[in-house]
Amino acid sequence: MPELPETETIARDLHAMVVGRVIKRVVVSRPDVLREILPEELPSSLEGTSITRVWRRAKLIVLDLVVGDTQRHLVVQPRFTGGLLVDDGSMPENELTYSCVAFVLDDGRTLHYRDVRRLGTVALMETGRFSAYSGALGPEPLDQTFDATAFSGCVRSSHQPIKVVLMDQRRLAGVGNIYANEALWRAGIDPSREAASLTPPETQRLHAELRDVLTASIAARGTSFRDYRDARGERGTFVEQLAAYGRGGEPCTRCGRRLVVTHAVDGRSTVFCPGCQR
Question: Is 221 a catalytic residue?
C-alpha cells in the first residue's frame, strides 16, 4: 500500500506537472472507486475547474480545485494498487486498461486514476467536509511541530503494541506496515512491546528513526515491491535500503541473527530481529 513516502512523491510530482491546468473533460470508466459523489455528477462538477495545488495528507493525495469562488478537493486514497499517472499520449495500452477515472487537461494530457484491484477511492469533497475528514486524522510525523515530546505523548498513552500504535491513523498519519517495521528495527524496539512501556529515551530514539526512514524513502521516491509507481510511472528505489520489511528469514544486518516473520502482532506481516529488538 502506498504510505507517506509514496503518496508524498506522487503529490510532489503532480504539483509540478499539473498545477495551473484546467480539467476539460472527465471520463468515469470504473464508477465503483468513487465516493461522496455519483458517477454521473462527477464530470459536471469538475469540468472547467483549475488545479491550484496538489499535496499529501496522511496516505491521501489531495488536489485542490477552483472554479469561480468555489473550492473543492479531489481526495485520492490509493490503497493497495491505486495511483495517479499523467499521460502525454505515450502511456502503454496495458496501463490504460486499468484507468478508472480520466481527467483530460487543457494542454492535451490526461491524468488517470489507475487501480488494478480497484480497492482505492476517489472522493470529491467541499472544503467543510474535507476539513472534518482531515481533522479526524492524527498529526503528520514529519511536521516540524511534531517533536519528540509530542510523539511520546502520542504513543505512550496507549497499551496496544507499539507497531499497532504507529499504524493507527487517528494517532499518527501516514505510517503503514513497511515503515513501522523499518522504524522499529532501526530503533531496536520489539514491535509487540506495549507502547506505554517505552522509556523516554526509547521514544526519542523511535521518533528520530521514524522521521529518518520516512525522509530517506522520500529521497528514494518510495518503495516499489509490486504495484507502486510515481506519477511518471517510475518505480521507487527504497526497497534497496530495507533492513526488515520483506527480509524475513534473512540475517539481521546489525547482529546477524535470523529475522523472524510473525502475523501475531496485528494480523499483518511483522518482521523483527529477536536478538537486537527489545
Answer: no
